[in-house]
Design brief:
mainly alpha; 11 helices
């Protein structure tokens, strides 16, 4: 039995399900340290694992509330383009650069999530809000897509932006990120597979373990207070960001 692969997949699935993002923060260093996968391939392989985990997590989240389809549409439009850009940049960026980008975005996102104000505005029409902020939604999606294409995890940027800039509640923002990630990751994966950056060995085991953990953790997230969920998200990113920054030095 491949214990390492099972534990790595389950840990990534739990984080992905509970926080709607962050699986990459577990997978990338774990793939490098425990499975000896080089930096570029670990980022690409992480996307291949997180892709199905995001699908199952999004399905669980969707059963508990409304889905902001207009926001997802605009964010995804920018995200798909960003995913292609990020995937093409992957082989051109050094390991140190990847880690620095990774840590900086996580720390910024963490501080915003911990110290941001109350939950999103209630009663505002989703369609009107999406149209009003359409260009900004797309711009944020583009930036998050580039980060996702690099295998770093666009949720570290997208979720805080949705909560702080657009007043979207934490749980809804997590669901948007999960659904947004699916087409973005699919496009990035095509490029990564073409470039030979995805390692197939152990992939089915990690995905299977991750799916089970993601489903359970996503259900737990739907029962957790949104404000507490936001602070948990921020605390997790802060710890991971500091650790990653130390590795990048």
């Amino acid at each position: 039995m491949k214990i390492k692969e099972i534990m790595i997949g389950a840990a990534a699935g739990f984080v992905n399900g509970l926080l709607g993002a962050g699986g990459g923060t577990i997978l990338v260093p774990a793939l490098q340290r425990f499975l000896n996968i080089e930096a570029h391939k670990s980022h690409a392989t992480a996307i291949a694992i997180i892709f199905p985990l995001s699908v199952i997590s999004a399905l669980v989240y969707a059963r508990s509330g409304n889905i902001d389809w207009p926001a997802i549409l605009y964010v995804s439009a920018g995200g798909v383009a960003g995913g292609v850009i990020g995937a093409k940049l992957l082989n051109k960026i050094t390991k140190t650069s990847l880690r620095k980008f990774f840590s900086v975005f996580m720390v910024i996102a963490a501080l915003r999530m911990i110290f941001s104000g109350a939950e999103g505005t209630a009663g505002e029409g989703l369609l009107n809000a999406a149209i009003k902020f359409a260009p900004l939604y797309a711009a944020v999606g583009l930036a998050a897509g580039i980060i996702s294409g690099l295998g770093i995890g666009g949720g570290t940027l997208l979720i805080p932006a949705l909560v702080i800039l657009f007043g979207i509640p934490q749980r809804d923002a997590q669901n948007i990120n999960l659904i947004y990630f699916i087409p973005t990751a699919a496009v990035a994966l095509v490029v990564h597979i073409k470039n030979g950056n995805v390692r197939a060995k152990g992939l089915p085991v990690m995905i299977t373990a991750g799916l089970a953990a993601a489903a359970g953790a996503a259900f737990l997230a739907t029962k957790t207070d949104a404000d507490l969920l936001r602070k948990i998200f921020g605390a997790f990113l802060l710890v991971m960001g500091v650790l990653e920054f130390k590795r990048a030095r």
